Amino acid sequence: MDALLYIDGQWKPGREHWWFNVENPATGRVMGRAVDATAPDVADALEAASRVAADWAQVPPAKRAELLDNMADALMANVDELAHLLTEEEGKPIKEARSEIAYGARFFRYYAGEVQRIEGDTFPDPEATRATFTRKIPIGVSVLITPWNYPLAMICRKMAPALAAGCPVIVKPAEQTPLIAAALFRVFDRLGVPPGVMNLVTGDPTRIGPLLLSDIRVRKISFTGSTAVGKQILRAAAEHVASVSLELGGNAPFIVFDDSDLEQVIPAILACKFRNAGQICVAANRIYVQRRHMTAVADALAEALSHLTVGDGLSAATDMGPLIDAAAVDKVSQHVQDAVTNGATIVMGGHPLEMPGYFYAPTVLTNASESMRLAQEETFGPVAPLLAFETESEVYERANQTPYGLAAYVFTRDLGRAMRAVRALHFGMVGVNDPVPSLAEVPIGGVKESGIGREGGHEGIHEFLETQYVSVRW
Ligand code: NAP
């Protein structure tokens, strides 16, 4: 399968006809290739998006809403085909791929409504012959840079509010997952989006990135990915004072109090730590268990994981697929090795799986502590480190000891304790007895080094709007 560039309403093989290969992580085999864009391709995309920006901004909201609704319908009409490709390219089980597509479609549906509620303010008349008000205007050409772990949904979460706000977009997906991005564009290509309004460029970010980031016509850079690259984007955007939204990495604490219900906690850990093989920005990274509950949690978790079917996500029986590539397996192995060296005990797993592709065994570790790499960095793999704690105040302090602040979770049956946790935890999202809090209707995002800005909900569209203040005298 070949993925072409999509620029100015046309599919293009790139001016230089350069390509890069894409692997299926469940087999390690090449499954397709994508165009490795060069400077003239990026220039074409920038030119096309800039040319149509004023016209797209003028399209009436009701018309933009109709298009967004059609995009949601088209995604769901093609869910089988898209899910198959998503699983082949990214590795997640087919049932998770289908949910990702439904989640992506929800953003188009939600912003089809929200586009019709973009409102400014009026202020008390300062004088008898003067009026003041604000208008919300599209920010302009928007570059959307997305990661491989939710390669379809992360594009939708940015593209739907950008298009709704009236901004043309240039999408740059991750090199591991360009095929699903191109498939998404193929689905949308049939819907009559005006040429230039949505553009797709794939390839080496060290070549494409600086060209996109340094162009004065780009007024918004919306990035989802690692904190290290996010910092580079922020620096680059400063050069021409472009607006930046950053959805970056996390180091989520998952706090299990001893009054919590294990029948709720164990499936929650599976969802929050083993979904997508742990490759989730909001994945539980440090599982704090109140000491009295530790043995029960470790045993019940190991028992639940022993029933997990690991394999190629295309098989309907698979519960957990591979990691994205060999480097990901190496990182997880290093984290586990480091933890064991520093005193952690392996309850189960703790090794890569001897099979084709990039698989790591579901792993549970006890006696984990903050001195270990896996409590300091995102492991991005199927490893559940259990850290013991005694008291409420102690666990909140330990949970907050991180430069990251994306998501935190707390499991308890005590409402007062839950609310104290919400107030104490310095994170952009808190799930109380909820391991999967994301929805299209709510603001997703982090504090501290986990990012700037929010995606989803009514806040999400404001990332692509500016306020124009008007004062009229007569
Ligand atoms: P990454 O290495 O930072 O890459 C993210 C995107 O940025 C990719 O498209 C990448 O392209 C591109 N990129 C890399 N260097 C660039 C540069 N110098 N200029 C412009 N673009 C550049 O992250 P990843 O490994 O794909 O994704 C995993 C990370 O994303 C994790 O940290 C995870 O927590 C985070 N994440 C956060 C959220 C959230 O909502 N906060 C959601 C999902 C993921 P290439 O792939 O071609 O290198």
Tell me about this structure.
The model has no long low-confidence stretch (mean pLDDT 98). A hairpin with a 4-residue loop joins strand 4 (19-24) and strand 5 (29-35). The chain starts with a strand and ends with a strand. The chain has 15 helices and 22 strands. A 7-stranded mixed sheet has the order 14-15-16-13-12-18-19, with helices on both faces. It has 474 residues and is an alpha/beta fold. It has helices at 39-58, 61-77, 79-90, 94-114, 153-165, 178-189, 205-213, 227-238, 262-274, 294-305, 326-341, 373-376, 392-400, 415-424, 457-462, and strands spanning 2-3, 5-7, 10-12, 19-24, 29-35, 130-138, 141-145, 169-172, 198-200, 218-224, 243-247, 252-256, 284-290, 345-348, 363-366, 383-389, 404-405, 407-411, 429-432, 447-448, 451-452, 465-473. Helix content is 39%, strand content 22%. Helix 2 runs antiparallel to helix 4, helix 3 crosses helix 4 (94-114) and helix 3 (79-90) packs antiparallel against helix 6 (178-189). The chain is globular and about 75 Å long. NADP nicotinamide-adenine-dinucleotide phosphate (NAP) binds next to helix 7 and helix 8.
